[in-house]
Amino acid sequence: MRRPEVELSDKAAAFVEQHPHLVESLAGRAVERTSDTPETAELRAGVRERVREYLAASRTEEAQAARQASGQAFLARYGLPA
Amino acid sequence: MTVLDVVLDASALVVYAENDLQALPIDELLDELRNDTGGRVLIPWFAVEDALRILRDDRRALDRLQALTAEFGVQLPDAGTQQAVEVVVAEGQVTAGMAHAMLLAVTAGCDVATYSASTLRQAGFAAVNDLGDAFPD
Question: Which residue of B has its CA nearest to A72?
Fold first, then answer.
């Protein structure tokens, strides 16, 4: 596969030279995220749905009130100021 | 839409950095928050210290952790928070990273995203986003 020739600015080239491991890890992460098998893609979709359900439930007034109350209880348990 | 912050504890940082299949929940959570508006990802300084001790010389994982902290920043403890962390560590029998995460979440009014939910609950902390629970049954 022919690699595209990308001309980097001086600043970008300096960053790549100074942080080879970081650039490599970011590229590797992109490959990992795009190399899902059908099984892992299905798993990822299921996890995404569960995460979205959690975020929706966390935003309710009831959840926020419960969070505040539990926070106060936590501080009181350790004798910390509210 | 209500703005929702999240605190990441050391277990979330380590799993994210190691990036195996267990990391799917933290990956998806961060992606959802990136697409959100205004919600912060709060990374406690002591949790970073805990994670660095666990990751040791895993170069690839350390780079992923570095990129994450560069993206979202790290919450440094002030003097009052440091004292509170010491109290929770001594009495709650948790690490400084877990204590800092719980205290930061109370201050911010949000949950701690963690793969160690049972440990946080045993320490008396209930506002937990159990990332291990995000895998479908």
Answer: B106
Residue B73, amino acid: G
Specify burial of residue A19 (Cβ count, 10 A radius: 0-12, 13-18, 19+): middle
| Type of residue found at B70 | A
In the sheet that B41-42 helps form, which strands lie side by side, from edge to edge? B41-42, B6-8, B111-114, B128-130
Which chain B residues touch A29 with a CB distance below 8 Å?
19, 64
Residue A43 sits at the chain B interface (C-beta within 8 Å): yes
pLDDT for residue A26: 57
Phi, psi dihedrals of residue A72, rounded to the nearest 5°: -65, -40
Residues 6+ apart with CB under 8 A from A74: B102, B106, B124, B125, B126
Q: What is the pTM of this model?
A: 0.82
To the nearest whole Å, the CA of A12 is away from the closest chain B CA by 16
Say how far apart CA A12 and CA A8 lie, in whole Å. 6
Assembly ipTM: 0.90
